[in-house]
Design goal:
It contains one helix and 13 strands. By secondary structure, it is mainly beta. The protein folds into two domains: 96 residues, no CATH class; 44 residues, no CATH class.
Length: 161
């Protein structure tokens, strides 16, 4: 509990729009201990919600009356009923968008920043950075940088430099 109290996370609400921060901050001097933030939002009966596509891969175990996979819930409107969330704009839904057989759920996108016991991984469309016990490895469309116990190695795609 003491460690959780030292996590700084903010949620912004403007009218009916709730914005969740993608990141949280730790107090200065706080060590990384695989902390995470779980946001649980309780929706009153009768209220309609729409999960923005930015939540794709972040929704987890959202109860709904049709047992729709979390990633298939984004971009649609859901109304809270006594029985749970019910889709109100799924009529005529292309069945290729829904996992009817409840097999393996869709794979969520890789988070842009991953910090765990293996190190730090930052993924962007133009570059990837990995920091682990072997060193620092940066890969981009323009070249690669590797820093390890042997030194610094820089390779660029443009050999004219």
């Amino acid at each position: 509990m003491e460690r959780a109290k030292r996590i700084n996370y903010s949620i912004t609400q403007v009218d009916s729009l709730i914005k969740l921060n993608a990141l949280f901050n730790l107090e200065e001097g706080e060590k990384l201990r695989d902390q995470e933030v779980i946001v649980q939002i309780k929706v009153p009966k009768g209220v309609v919600v729409r999960f923005d596509k930015s939540l794709l891969g972040y929704l987890s175990d959202v109860d709904n009356v049709s047992n729709t996979w979390d990633n298939n819930m984004v971009g649609r409107r859901w109304q809270m009923t006594t029985a749970g969330l019910k889709c109100i704009d799924c009529e005529g839904l292309d069945l290729s968008d829904v996992d009817e057989d409840f097999g393996t759920p869709p794979v969520p996108p890789t988070p842009p920043v991953m910090i765990n016991n293996n190190g730090i991984s930052i993924n962007d469309k133009d570059a990837n950075v990995k920091v682990d016990k072997s060193g620092i490895n940066i890969k981009s469309k323009d070249g690669n940088v590797k820093i390890d116990e042997t030194g610094i190695n820089i390779n660029t795609k443009d050999k004219a430099q």
